[in-house]
């Protein structure tokens, strides 16, 4: 016999059809789902939020993803690369603010100079206060050797979104060539895991052509891959990208927000101990988007530390939050916003994924 909505909520071992029932919840049912997810999060992870100071290292990208403003085909972007001194002063600032971890992100590059440079930067960041900062990298698809060299340099977490776990949808939002291979991306995730990274992935929610069925499969993909971290957020149409042409097929902002929250909530029930990011893109579709994501089950926020003059060039999607705010302003802003929803920031800790640390203990 089919389980009732209430029974599904209490179960946590969902089949695909049940996931779809949860993702389709609206009104009081949706509220009940989010409430349940928060309760489960509090039970496993308490009311802590971990911060990763985000350093947007550079916006040069070899890829040409059809949705992203940094794609190589977009001639309108002024390309930059931070100096070593800029990166290190961001990292020192993260440490001073008590963030505990930094995340180094950039467009995808695989030339040897870049690869070596990252290893060097990771080693330098590790020297700050005797290795007190945790380091997450988000630098795209790389060779096993490269991933290994960065791990040996001291990085211990890696984020590589699958963007969509549906191969069919993947090829609708990426050019069809060797540079954008779905299989390669999955292989990269496997490599990262086997090297020993806390590995994270994620998807965009509200893409044109995306179905409820595919979103349910995304959650099952995270579970099957047994990842330690997930970052998922709403897709935001960017006018200087090819996918913009299909913007009339993108659900309205409030629907993308709601679906993102339901995805987070259902995943929190399925994987109670993973780290989940409240993506900055949430803030673009809803002024309270990040807090809502935290309240629905996320437990990580990535406040931006990129020096002011470069922020507007890291133009992945329009209307990014906090582009004009200073790091110390974001810090007190987050303290207040999170306290208002019964959460607190855990300062001066790496904030590793419990799902991961339990496995490796
Ligand atoms: N809207 C929302 N997220 C986007 N990303 C890229 N382009 C967009 C967009 N238009 C996300 C992708 C990528 C990360 C760097 O930014 O998921 O992994
Ligand atoms: Fe490059 Fe990443 Fe943007 Fe794709 S999503 S174009 S890989 S920065
Ligand atoms: Fe940046 Fe609120 S978090 S201003």
What does this entry show, briefly?
By secondary structure, the chain is α/β, with parallel strands linked by helices.
Structural class: alpha/beta
Q: What global shape is seen?
A: globular
Give the total of beta strands. 11
Cα Rg:
19 Å
Question: What is the CATH architecture descriptor?
Answer: Alpha-Beta Barrel
Q: Find the CATH topology.
A: TIM Barrel
Features:
binds FE2/S2 (inorganic) cluster; single chain; globular; binds iron/sulfur cluster; TIM Barrel; 361 residues; eight-stranded parallel beta sheet
Break the fold down into its secondary structure elements and pairings.
Blueprint: H1 5-11, H2 16-23, H3 27-45, E1 48-51, E2 53-58, H4 84-97, E3 101-106, H5 112-127, E4 134-138, H6 144-153, E5 157-159, H7 167-173, H8 182-195, E6 198-201, E7 204-205, H9 212-225, E8 229-234, H10 253-270, E9 275-278, H11 281-285, H12 289-295, E10 300-301, H13 308-311, H14 327-340, E11 344-345, H15 354-360
Parallel strand pairs: 1-10, 1-11, 2-3, 3-4, 4-5, 5-6, 6-8, 7-8, 8-9
The structure holds 5'-deoxyadenosine, iron/sulfur cluster (SF4) and FE2/S2 (inorganic) cluster (FES).
Structure description:
This protein has 361 residues and is α/β, with parallel strands linked by helices. It has one domain (47-360): TIM Barrel, CATH 3.20.20. It contains 15 helices and 11 strands. The strands form 2 sheets. Strands 2, 3, 4, 5, 6, 7, 8 and 9 form an 8-stranded parallel β-sheet that branches. Strands 10-1-11 form a 3-stranded parallel β-sheet, with helices on one face. Strand 8, helix 10 and strand 9 (275-278) form a beta-alpha-beta unit. The longest helix has 19 residues, at 27-45. The termini are far apart. The structure holds 5'-deoxyadenosine (5AD), iron/sulfur cluster (SF4) and FE2/S2 (inorganic) cluster (FES). 5'-deoxyadenosine is lined by residues 67-68, 161, 163, 204, 235-236, 238, 281, 316-317.
């Amino acid at each position: 016999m089919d389980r009732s909505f209430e029974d599904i909520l209490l179960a946590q071992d969902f089949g695909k059809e049940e996931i779809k029932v949860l993702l389709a919840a609206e009104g009081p049912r949706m509220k009940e789902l989010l409430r349940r997810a928060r309760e489960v999060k509090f039970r496993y992870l308490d009311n802590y939020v971990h911060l990763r100071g985000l350093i947007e290292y550079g916006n040069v990208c070899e890829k040409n993803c059809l949705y992203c403003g940094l794609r190589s085909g977009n001639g309108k972007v002024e390309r930059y690369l931070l100096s070593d001194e800029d990166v290190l002063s961001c990292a020192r600032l993260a440490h001073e603010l008590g963030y505990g971890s930094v995340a180094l992100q950039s467009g995808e590059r695989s030339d040897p100079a870049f690869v070596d440079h990252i290893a060097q930067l990771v080693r330098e960041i590790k020297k700050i206060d005797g290795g007190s900062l945790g380091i997450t990298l988000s630098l795209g698809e790389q060779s096993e050797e490269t991933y290994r060299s960065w791990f040996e340099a001291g990085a211990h977490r890696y984020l590589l979104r699958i963007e969509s776990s549906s191969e069919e949808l993947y090829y609708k939002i990426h050019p069809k060539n060797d540079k954008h291979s779905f299989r390669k991306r999955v292989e990269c995730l496997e490599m990262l895991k086997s090297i020993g990274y806390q590995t994270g992935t994620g998807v965009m929610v509200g893409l044109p052509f995306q179905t409820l069925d595919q979103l349910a499969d995304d959650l099952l993909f995270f579970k099957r891959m047994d990842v330690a971290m997930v970052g998922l957020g709403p897709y935001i149409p960017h006018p200087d990208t090819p996918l913009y042409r299909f913007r009339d097929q993108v659900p309205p902002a409030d629907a993308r927000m709601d679906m993102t929250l339901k995805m987070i909530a259902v995943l929190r029930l399925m994987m109670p101990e993973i780290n989940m990011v409240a993506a900055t893109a949430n803030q673009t579709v809803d002024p309270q988007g990040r807090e809502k994501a935290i309240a629905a089950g996320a437990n990580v926020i990535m406040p931006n530390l990129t020096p002011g003059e470069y922020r507007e060039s890291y133009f992945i999607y329009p209307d990014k939050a906090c582009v004009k705010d200073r790091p110390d302003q974001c810090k007190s802003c987050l303290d207040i916003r999170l306290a208002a929803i019964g959460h607190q920031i855990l300062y001066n800790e790496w904030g590793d994924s419990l799902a991961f640390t339990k496995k490796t203990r």
